């Protein structure tokens, strides 16, 4: 089995999103994605992938030396890479809690994960009229790949904990989320999270409707703490 991964960055910071917000974590960003979200906040791991090949041994050693108890395997789409399996297993053997951040379009048998952080992509992610995709090739590909309910259900069932993070831009995104959730099983209402689109701290008035939707459904509001603390900066 291939024991290298294309890595765009590794760093130690606090988790900025989801159930473990604020928890010190070692982050490993794997470069390469099967989607092209128009609002992607890590284009260096999707639209313009940058990477250095690193071995599972090197990465696991670095995670241990970080001194944190939590590892976050993110991307890009980390589940596209077979070597994620031995890396995740090494992290587990080292006693680390592992979160995998995925769009939930594919599964990867054998991967070890404590918290599966799934971010299903809504139609607001499709790169329609995006200058980076002048012929619309990625728009078509993205639209055909962005939702895979069977894969999401498998990911939910395969881990002890999960969260479903939806990036929302407008109230009309809600019926789309409801329709996706009808196809999913094995999650609690509070596992569903709404996160405002954008890479700036939103003002209070602009997110009131998101809070109201969360309160009425028992869903969670998902801020981006790292943006509030560090701004839209790599390595945070
Ligand atoms: S799935 Fe994630 S990494 Fe891939 S394009 Fe969308 S936001 Fe970017």
What are the main properties of this structure?
28% helix, 7 helices, globular, binds iron/sulfur cluster, TIM Barrel, 236 residues, alpha/beta
Polypeptide structure, described:
The chain is of the alpha/beta class and 236 residues long. The protein has a single domain (4-230), classed as Alpha-Beta Barrel (TIM Barrel). The protein contains seven helices and nine strands, in the order βββαβαββααβαβαβα. It has helices spanning 56-65, 84-93, 137-145, 149-157, 173-181, 204-217, 225-230; strands at residues 4-14, 24-30, 52-55, 70-74, 97-102, 115-118, 161-168, 192-196, 220-221. It has a nine-stranded mixed β-sheet with strand order 3-1-2-4-5-6-7-8-9. The longest helix has 14 residues, at 204-217. The protein binds iron/sulfur cluster. Residues 33, 35-37, 40, 42, 45-46, 75-77, 103 line the site of iron/sulfur cluster.
């Amino acid at each position: 089995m291939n024991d290298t991964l294309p890595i765009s960055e590794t760093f130690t910071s606090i988790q900025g999103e989801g159930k473990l917000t604020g928890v010190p974590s070692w982050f490993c960003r794997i470069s390469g994605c099967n989607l092209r979200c128009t609002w992607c906040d890590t284009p260096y791991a999707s639209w313009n992938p940058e990477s250095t090949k690193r071995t599972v041994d090197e990465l696991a050693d670095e995670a241990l030396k970080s001194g944190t108890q939590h590892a976050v395997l993110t991307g890009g789409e980390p589940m596209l890479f077979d070597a994620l399996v031995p890396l995740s297993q090494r992290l587990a053997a080292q006693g680390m809690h592992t979160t995998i951040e995925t769009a939930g379009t594919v599964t990867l048998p054998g991967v070890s994960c404590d918290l599966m952080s799934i971010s299903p992509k809504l139609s607001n992610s499709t790169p329609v009229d995006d200058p980076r995709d002048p012929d619309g090739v990625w728009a078509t590909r993205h639209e055909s790949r962005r939702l895979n309910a069977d894969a999401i259900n498998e990911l939910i069932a395969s881990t002890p904990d999960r969260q479903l993070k939806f990036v929302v831009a407008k109230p009309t995104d809600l019926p789309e989320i409801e329709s996706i959730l009808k196809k999913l099983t094995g999650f609690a209402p509070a596992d569903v999270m709404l996160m405002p689109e954008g890479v700036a701290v939103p003002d209070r008035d602009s997110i009131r409707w998101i809070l109201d939707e969360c309160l009425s459904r028992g869903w969670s509001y998902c801020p981006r703490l790292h943006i509030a603390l560090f701004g839209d900066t790599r390595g945070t």
